[in-house]
Specification:
Blueprint lengths: L6 H15 L6 H5 L4 E7 L3 E6 L12 E4 L9 E6 H7 L6 H6 L3 E4 L2 H11 L2 H11 L9
Parallel strand pairs: 1-4
Antiparallel strand pairs: 1-2, 2-3, 4-5
């Protein structure tokens, strides 16, 4: 089952999550302190989003920038490619990153230890995501 019907829905839902997290004073500073550029390449539907925690943020109230689409001027330290459904499950806390990498559900390019250091920082997002889905009237997407 595909969780997102198209790229616009993926961008809306995952974008809203990233927008909440980038301003969250309990989570975002820990991601910013990683000083890393991570690009997520989603498929089925397609979406490309880059977290730029290596430069000072330009977006209002953010600890780092979240950028959608290709940007040839910004080279990611780590590139993570996965199906959008895997990302949805990940943000529910249902995907073990190491297992997903071993099974090639997530394909990573770049220094994996850098991304692994961020895992403790993003764990609180697992609780935020289902709450956010319910708030926007998409409780149907909450994994049971």
């Amino acid at each position: 089952m595909a969780y997102f019907k198209d790229e616009a829905e993926l961008h809306h839902i995952i974008g809203m999550l990233y927008d909440r997290v980038k301003v969250d004073p309990a989570i975002a500073p820990r991601i910013r302190d990683g000083k890393i550029v991570v690009q997520f390449r989603y498929t089925d539907p397609i979406g490309i989003v880059t977290i730029n925690a290596a430069a000072p943020p330009t977006q209002p109230n953010a600890f780092y920038d979240v950028l959608w689409g290709e940007d040839a001027s910004l080279k990611p330290d780590v590139e993570m490619t996965m199906k959008s459904d895997v990302a949805h499950q990940f943000w529910h806390g249902r995907v073990n990153l190491m297992t997903a990498l071993a099974r090639r559900q997530i394909i990573a390019k770049g220094p994996i230890p850098k991304i692994l250091k961020l895992l403790p920082a993003v764990e609180p997002v697992y609780a935020i995501y289902p709450v956010m889905l319910r708030e926007i009237g998409r409780g149907d997407l909450v994994l049971k």
